[in-house]
Amino acid sequence: MTRRFRRVLAGATGMTYALMLLGVYTAAYGAGLTCGANWPFCDGAVYGLFPATFQSFVEWFHRLFAMIVGFVLLGAAGLAWRDGADRRVRWAVTAAVALLPLQIGLGAVTVTIGGMIPWGYSPAVQAGHFTVALSILTLVTYATVRTLPTPSAATVRRGTVAAGFLVVAGYLFSYGSPLTYDAWTQSAYYALTLALFGLLLSTAWWARAGRLPAAVTPLTGAGAALTGVLALLGRRLTGTVPPVVGDAMTLAVFALVLGAIWLAYREHRPGSVAPTPRDSD
Known about the structure:
Elements: H1 3-28, H2 45-48, H3 54-82, H4 87-98, H5 100-112, H6 123-147, H7 153-172, H8 183-208, H9 216-234, H10 243-266
């Protein structure tokens, strides 16, 4: 695969991450319904092509950026097939593109009829919208990690420690913390939580590739899955969730990360046997 494809794919992954944060901010800022039933347009000049207020600008920019990300993902998928990327990489990127129509449809339902029909802005629709977005992020992250050079074992070990810090830092901004859970606090929480999600996914793959003991893979994989559920509950998309539930899940993620750290550094002690690199098939 070409360097150009790697750059485009990495860019698409970073843009997907940024788009999710922008979506969180848009909803938390109260701008999700500001364009009314004018989708895909808005409430301003030139037949609704532009926004009329700053609040509707936030929603309008979210839509514009989502369109750009969609085209970048399409480009990445095209390059994956044209440049003969790894089979799993091709299908992961293609699956991400295949989910785009569903994501666009759920977004359209949320913002166009959410203010008119009770189920339009319901927890179920919002949960579906976020879940599909997280699925797309998972697919492109997986594809990106497979295309990048595998880092050294020392770097991956430090990554497990960084994951532990991300768990703690994210908790400080979570729902139920002393901070006011406003748009900026939610955005900070999701910036940290999604970074943790991506780091745990990456570590699971690198451990499988032989950089860390094999037992690290199920620990970090389970941590990533639980972090995804925690992110969903963090927005209370499935109804009002008591903070104690989020606290318990955060503690579980932290325990999994601590287990991964212990395994990673246990093999690194003087006199221990280094893990044998495995086929990354």
